[in-house]
Amino acid sequence: MEFRAATRKDVKAIVGMLADDELGSQRENFTDPLPDSYYSAFENISRDPNQELIVVEDQGEIIGTLQLSFIQYLTYQGGIRAQIEAVRIKRDRRGQGLGEQMFRWAIDRTRERGAHLLQLTTDKQRPEAIKFYEKLGFVATHKGMKLHFTQ
Predict the structure, then answer these.
(1) Residue 61, SS3?
(2) Which of 2, 13, 21, 72 is positioned for an S-S bond with 62, CB 3.0–4.6 A?
(3) Secondary structure letter of residue 13 according to DSSP
(4) Gap between the Cα atoms of 75 and 148, Å rounded
(5) CB-based contacts of 105, cutoff 8 Å, min separation 6
(6) Rounded to two decimals, what is the model's pTM?
(7) Is the Cβ–Cβ distance between 55 and 4 less than 8 Å?
């Protein structure tokens, strides 16, 4: 297994994984061809040195993905916090320990980049995910809130 930066040719596989669950299927548009918005977003992410869109590849097949965002701020004496988002595993590879391997990789990468904190949000409709994150050492210390804008 190899963890590497995503390339433009990986976008379709990534979006396929994002769309392949109950919540993702409601918000993603996994069509052929993919909407240009996904490729535009990929270009923006790949140009930003504080964004890392990662794929996990096994024998030439993309089997997982995650995104790390590194946020510089003034608190914590000018610290850096990392946000992990869009962690997905290909359906036929779930339940094999890959999620834990991906998070261990992300934790190590976050430390390499000098961040003092790795944070995530998860939908309250995903109780199994919450248990998984707690097992990895994540603690629900804050209450997150969002303000969605209609398109």
Answers:
(1) strand
(2) 13
(3) H
(4) 26
(5) 3, 54
(6) 0.93
(7) yes
